[in-house]
Amino acid sequence: MNGISEILAVMPHRYPFLLIDRVVEMSENTIRAIKNVTINEPHFLGHFPEVPVMPGVLLVEAMAQAGGFLLLSQVEDRDDKLIYFTGIDKCRFRKPVVPGDQVVFEVEILAKRSTFAKIKGRALVDGEVVCEAHMMSALADR
Known about the structure:
Blueprint: H1 4-10, E1 22-26, E2 30-36, H2 56-72, E3 81-93, E4 102-112, E5 116-125, E6 128-141
Antiparallel strand pairs: 1-2, 2-4, 3-6, 4-5, 5-6
């Protein structure tokens, strides 16, 4: 559906912190996006050298970015706006994510106002949930 050029046109994030590679499905309130995890990512140098595991905080950030793409896609003057991650609840990590995995992020808007949103996200590898959380965000001027 939306490849990297469309993602870059909407999102303010750039390498090495853009953590979604493709949007595969999107509606007004939901999104499915993917991240292909490779050994070439900088965090694997130290997390952990002998047993590379994607940091859980980056899984949460990637989920938030998928939600951010969904929310920013609905903002007309998005070039003048940023979405700040303001909170997280009910976060659970179920399994490690390693190089070679493809993570599918499924995010749903639970509540939305003009400058606030609450979303629920799940990260899956091979159909199994590896991470889930509820996240809050605020839309602000740049």
